[in-house]
């Protein structure tokens, strides 16, 4: 559909004629106090009938040019078909552990051994992509917690900055309580039907100023629901000087604390021992926190003003050129 964004600008169409009719001419020998584009051409309108047909061309071009310039100023636009946007009103924050233990290679991604962080990135990116309509933020934490991405509908930016996260960026220890506290602070002033934090960690709280359970109690009072995910395999084979042996790479994971955090806030605790379990957890989160289906619509707009603007300038230049040639 075609429309003008500022149609009231068409009220200036008679401006050249009004200026010619009511503006007093400048004294002889002096410069004009006001010069209106194409006003001189409109001034010749009364005498046009007594001139040769060829002398009307500058006037015609001036009129056409003025019409095109006014049309360009009114911002012609082409409106496309309505596009549906689903908006849930949910604020969803991801908190990802970047401590040194996330470098343990006990996951398999695409048939290759991978560390825990790379597996989290792979699965979390697909989860973020599916959350159309949610505002998503990203917290990275280690020895300290940092807000990497504030709440935004721009899922591509969240995916990109998560992919760029590096182990040790926030320190080698784990400040789970501080991560929860930062999430509470960032979500508190954002009105929403639901506020959700998904916290991924492979260890116990070993740093920070706030204890995890204290932070969970505050989160419960603020209406923040926390889903916790414990990342890491239960068993892996390592080689040393004496051969091979089986070890538990997740012995530092404090599952009791992670479970308590989730239960205090009305969430759930999940255990991700491999990529497949991690993927199933995110699929379950999609069901536990379904995406709302309330739809809003917008129509894309294509600005068309460059066309009448360019043609109007060409017509004006043509009118001036023909007038100069006729005068010669």
Could you please describe the fold and organization of this structure?
With 328 residues, the chain is α/β, with parallel strands linked by helices. Helices cover 38% and strands 23% of the residues. The protein contains 10 helices and 15 strands. The protein has a 6-stranded mixed beta sheet with strand order 8-7-4-9-10-13, sandwiched between helices. Strands 1-2-15 form a 3-stranded antiparallel beta sheet. A two-stranded antiparallel ribbon has the order 3-14. Helix 7 (212-221) packs parallel to helix 8 (255-264). The radius of gyration is 34 Å and the shape is elongated.
- The termini sit apart by 47 Å
Q: Fraction of residues in helices?
A: 25-40%
Backbone structural class: alpha/beta
Could you tell me the strand content as a percent range? Answer: 15-25%
Low-confidence stretches: 45-52
What radius of gyration results from the CA coordinates? 34 Å
| Biggest beta sheet attributes | 6 strands, mixed
Q: Give the tally of β-strands.
A: 15
Form type:
elongated
Number of helices: 10
Mean pLDDT, to the nearest integer, reads: 82
InterPro entries: UPF0353/GerABKA_families, vWA_BatA_type, VWF_A
Domain VWFA: 91-288
Protein name: Ca-activated chloride channel homolog
